[in-house]
Design a protein that fits this description.
The chain is mostly helical. It is built from 10 helices and no strands.
Length: 217
Amino acid sequence: MTTTTAAPTPDKLTSKGQATRARILEQAAELIYTKGVHATNNEQLRRAAGVSGSQLNHYFPNKESLVLAVIAWQADRVLTFHRSEQFARFDNLDALREWADFYVGYERSYQEGCSLGSLASEIIKTDLDVHEQLAAAFDQWRNIFRDGLQRMQRLGRLSADADPTQLANLLLAAYQGGMLLAQVARNIAPLKDALQAAIDYVQTFATSPDAGVLQAR
């Protein structure tokens, strides 16, 4: 699909315009999650977001521009959460365990699933030219883990034999696969087991029993 009209970027919008755009994206993400990309149309989105057709066309001239923006919006939410101080940049095993405990302890995890993963499962079924942006979002997510594991190596908490990229892929795959199985079973156990097994494997590369424990910096 070729874009004939460029969508306005958020930094060029007024505060009111940014709020309207965010509302459209939030509703679009929800509709895509529940109905799929093809079954989501402008009329549904206009009603859900409370905007006119001209407003919707102003912010998102076509479906591709809308889906690209939804990917960026969902990715930003996920990445911002994972970059928060709550997880201490993932440079110790305790931070990885706290990350796993958050999702295992969140009672609606298996009902809501992964917002970005669910979006991806819908978008990859389409012929929209957005796969590169979707892959980039997951690359950024994986790299948060990879960067943390690399810091663990530099701090001497993880042996030189560890492959941070491989371990980062394992952590992300354990989360995505475990979350899907948890949704199917409507039970958090598959996610808990998958994350625990992945973190236990990372721990096999720890240089000492307490090497991956959070220490004062």
